[in-house]
Amino acid sequence: MSVGAIRSVGVCGAGGTMGAGIAIVAARAGFRTLCHDTSSDALARARVESAAFFDKAVARGKMTAPARDAALAAMVPAADLAALATCDLVIEAVFEDLATKRALFRELDAICPPETIFASNTSTLSITEIASGCGREDRVIGLHFCLPAPLMRLIEVSPGINTSADTLHAAWAWAEACGQTPVRTQDKPGFILNALLVPFNNDAIRAVEAGVATPADIDTAIKAALGYKMGPLELIDLVGLDTQLRLGEAFYPITLDPRAAPPPLLRRMVAAGHLGRKSGRGFFRYDGNAMFGS
Known about the structure:
2 domains, alpha/beta, Rossmann fold, N-(1-d-carboxylethyl)-l-norvaline Dehydrogenase, domain 2
């Protein structure tokens, strides 16, 4: 399949922040985008948040009103997974669990045409293991987006052992067609970004736990000195403290790097329900619960 043949994209988990962001990236680039989620309420909320994101882009002069309307029209809710049978590329951004992702790809294999490419947004699981037994291992690839996906241009493109060269080429070209910046990585948990970022974020949490400085001052120092647009604790709140915990729990047994091990403060905050933006409280407090950090 050439990239020119990719006209329709499906996103599984489109009711969540990551999945909704991926859908925005695809629709904004002109691809018909089917947004699937098991929760109709989550899909409806994501639709409202996506419209608000596009409205802000128009208000800031980054997008025209006709382009906004076209992108919104390209985003089609798909409560039934069978609707994704029309897709040339399906990207999953569902719960970070190997059995869940494998089961989804097996189900999609029975629905989609043989040429459809399956992509996983995982950052902690092996693409080869996710693809195993799905029926089209040569057409499965990793496409790891960064939060917030509509604003962050990076996509880590990770072929598995059985991923074909044609699939890699098509996925790479599609990422570029979306205006994203693809980089190729090996099929190793964490790839580039999270392999470096998870220990760094844990260090920031440990600094809070040790009383080195407040979360606000730590973030201000990092942004002012290193030029980051977002501090590590703001980022953890956006990603979700529960996600940071799962990342650490996945990486530490593999790397045995003590910096990858989840800090005790992180475990306590997750246990207390302080998950970041999604719960209204993490290292900071939030009045709203907007996606994409908006």
